[in-house]
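Researcher: Please predict.
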Amino acid sequence: MGSDKVVVTCALTGVLTDPKVHNVPVTPQEMAEHAKQAFDAGATVVHCHFRNQEPGKGHLPTWDLDSVGRILAAIKERVPEIIINMSTGVVGPDISGPLACLEAFKPEMAACNAGSLNYLKLRENGSWAWPPMLFDNPVEKVKRFLDVMMANGIVPEFECFDTGIVRSVGLYKRNRMFEGPAHISLVMGVASGMPAKPQWLPLLLEEMPPGSHWQVIAIGRQEIWETHRRCLELGGNARTGLEDTFYLPDGRRARNNGELVEALVRIVREVGREVASPQEARRILNLREP
């Protein structure tokens, strides 16, 4: 589903990025500050992972309701208009943490990982960068997330790491596992998933349910920006942030989330489109009234 207006998302911090090495926000104040930077640069949605708030543990995720609540409250106090898209991804069958957060805070949107992937990466010498792991998202697990999202008026954003996962979203739709248009994020650039190649996008578009909203989550360095450009030319929405990349189109390292959003918004305008306001974004994405 194309529109002249582009909904811009900023993924503020990611899952395990070490704040001692990279300038990713962890505390409520840092998350709020980066959300404000992103909003001022043109983002209307922030995708939020939540980090352990204990000293020295900021690289670890948390589903602690008090910690998550303080982060969300700080973001909303600083940027009342912003749309919260809550992460839900966990390995294994125990999804009690993210489900409790969805029920407690009822964000307007939440990620829903739509299928399983062998999550792999190699070092230059051919050894594994980490032990090969299965990011398991069987249909029963997906359905448990969707049941809670549908019961609480939360729009699911389907993260799709591979082509079969994109097609699975259409099957979920036909099986009535969710209501409304599909919101699809094409995760591109993970070594064992779809590559971040612009020429893949027209083919992937053909596999989406009619009327889908979509965007690219491009993982990598400056080579990802041409994939963002092609996505925008084809009518997609846009996402960037320190979860996805540390590098600007010219190869420089981004100092913060605001710089990445500024770079993406420049491309939005170069292809002849304009960023959506929060009100326009909510209308485009069919979100409930906050």
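Model: The longest strand covers residues 155-160.
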